[in-house]
Amino acid sequence: MTQYDTISKQYTDVFDSLPYRDIEVANVYAALEPILSPNSHVIEFACGAGFYTDKLLSWGVGSVTGTDISKRMIELARLRLARAPHNDLARFVVSDGTVPCSYSAGGDLEAYDIAFAAWFLNYSATSAELTSMFTSVAINLKPTGVFIGVVPHPTEDFETRAEACAKAPLNRLYPRNDYTGKLESGDGWGLRVYLDDQGTNFMTYHLRPSVYEDAARAAGLKGSFAWRHEILHDDEMWRVKLGLSDEEWTIREKNPHLGILIIWKN
């Protein structure tokens, strides 16, 4: 994940401007909206340059503690929030989310109502690494807390997905997924993601849904476990934004980019 120290500004400028980003935000808000509250304190893993930190606060949560392994990303997050009216409700910590620890200012465990992570869990290459990430989540969540994460679309059929992503129209849409092959562990596939024609890219992993559930349970997240599939509201608007024909849009619908994972602690 330290690859972002090098590509941080380029990644942020490119990714935040992609038409796809609006689709992602709509899906994230739909998942979070029922639990948003000014009394909610949020721990955000892999906060990056503060895109969702800013969103969460504008959506009405009480506070957000953003964590990221990249010092440069945290610097960009602080700059973003410095211009926001809710700057005093954000706090940032440079830390490795794969190493479980408390993120509360006082070092208390189980301090947060919501744990949010957009594109964090997909940096785990094995079930053991994923369990460590979920342990970081579990020890920071209150007993009544909930985790909401954005990850690659949940599937067990990586061969079909890799084939689809290598063909038009998916191979010209950004973010573009390039599946690099099966992991030795059998837990999933390697996945390199490209953001533009200039080659801005980063390495990540797409693990099986069953691996996610087993790792979450092993980490102590014992409550309801559910997947939300990507929803494409206002089909015509998104089709035009992405520049797709009706036929190409059908292919895009059949191959969702993201999935949203919701797990209650107890």
TrEMBL record:
GO molecular function, one term: methyltransferase activity
Name of the featured protein: Methyltransferase domain-containing protein
Source organism, top-level taxon: Eukaryota
InterPro entries membership: Methyltransf_25, SAM-dependent_MTases_sf
Source species: Conoideocrella luteorostrata
Alphabetical keyword list: Methyltransferase, Transferase
Stretches assigned to the Methyltransferase domain: 42-145
A matching Pfam family: Methyltransf_25
Any single biological process term in GO: methylation
